[in-house]
Amino acid sequence: MSSLLPLEINSKLSNVGTSIFTVMSALSNKHGAINLSQGFPDFDVDPLLVSLVEKHMKAQRNQYAPMAGVPSLRASIAAKVKKMYQRDLHPDTEITVTSGATQAINSAISALISPGDEVMIFEPAYDSYVPSIQLMGGIVNPVVLEGPDFRVDWDKVRQQFSPRVKMVIINTPHNPSGTIWTEHDLEQLKDLAREFSFVILSDEVYEHLVYDGHHHLSILGDEELFSRSLVCFSFGKTLHVTGWKLGYCIAPPQLTKEFRKAHQFQVFSANSPMQYAIGEYLEDEAKWTGLGTFFQAKRDLFLQYLSQTDFAFDPCAGTYFQVADYSAISNEPDIDFANWMTKEIGVAVIPISPFSEAASEQRLVRFCFAKKDQTLIEAGERLQALSK
Ligand code: PMP
Ligand code: GLN
User: Residue 3 falls within a domain, yes or no?
Assistant: First the structure.
């Protein structure tokens, strides 16, 4: 008989299961469906980028990168930010390269949130925010965004605000709804910052994916807001390499200093050869300036098919996701409907309720259109089974 005492596990995330992205991609694979669920491209990465990784691996750039990131990559990020948002950054004190935006978000929260601090989020919210807050003993203060337009109701924000809120997490363009913030939203946030002291964590991983002539309004474009913000980005989204798990966090020096205290002990540094490769690749602006046009064509192709079905939707303004209402097709809860779509229609989608408890009453699912045209056409044809 063992003399060891029984193990008592005190779960810090007792209400957390497997991420919906993992669940739906596995179900999609099991049923051989077309996977429009988890957000990743099915088209090839630019061979030039792959050859640059090989070049830097062969040049023996295979040891630890500097903790804050490879200098040439931080210089390229600074040049890109200057071009896009007219902001001069100091790569040594304001840019940190991370293992994806997920790590950037987690490091920002763990560096700045203490037990009992409130963090305001907008729901539906990207699924990593709540567990990251809870792991630090923070309290989630969720503001529900109502469909179909999912705009922020600033009266509601004010009603729910108090000095206990130490951080507000914003996400524009917004996953899953595809809405984008306006000047009005930024002004409202600024008004709030005149009354209360809080840090802004701005998740801008879809900065390039904005359509119909709109522009992405970054926190980086506003001096006052930037002075209290950490802004997170993902090369996975920008360069079609979600599996590389590389991103970065931009923040003024005093916030970057705190951010790096967590970052250096969570990962120390992100992988080096890919940092060198991306740094070189980004020197050519053409590699990232045409992304909005590229994805808008995919959105429009997919929506041509979706509009011939009984799904109801407003075309998304940003991201590579389209949310659609299926209440004319079924009254089942969204998780059941997503499972049915995957098994019976052969198109996997993401239910919205895992992004928001309030969404469980709604009849909404999310499609990812970051796919080859041929994939979108085949999925679109399968969806025709859902028309009157
Ligand atoms: N934030 C949002 C809104 C996302 O959709 C994602 C998914 N990529 C992330 C953060 C995480 O990005 P990464 O894959 O770089 O960790
Ligand atoms: N960001 C992607 C999405 O929203 C998935 C990220 C993940 O699988 N963790 O689908």
Answer: no
CA of 284 to the centre of ligand 2 (A): 27
Q: Does the pTM exceed 0.85? A: yes
Structure confidence at residue 357 (pLDDT): 77
Encoded amino acid at 228, one letter: R
Let me know if residue 15 belongs to a domain.
Answer: no
Distance separating alpha carbons of residues 213 and 292, to the nearest angstrom = 9
21 lines ligand 2 (CB under 6 A): yes
Q: How many CB atoms lie within 10 A of CB 159?
A: 10
Is the CB–ligand 2 distance for residue 19 below 6 Å?
yes
Residue 219 DSSP one-character state: G
Look at residue 360 in the predicted model and tell me its pLDDT.
72
Mean pLDDT by 10 residues, the chain (388 residues): 89 91 96 97 96 98 98 98 97 98 98 98 96 97 92 98 98 97 98 98 98 97 98 97 98 98 97 98 93 97 97 97 97 96 97 85 94 98 91
- Cβ–ligand 2 distance for 38 under 6 Å, the answer yes
Q: Are residues 252 and 304 in the same domain?
A: no
Query: 264, 284, 304: which is the final residue of a domain?
Result: 284
Q: Which of 222, 252, 284 is a domain's end point?
A: 284
C-beta separation of 232 from 205 below 8 A: yes
- Quick one: which of 323, 334, 385 has its CA closest to 363? 334
Q: 39 in ligand 2 pocket by Cβ < 6 Å?
A: yes
State whether 238 and 343 are in the same domain.
no
Closest ligand 1 atom, CA of 237? 8
Q: In this structure, are 73 and 33 located in the same domain?
A: no
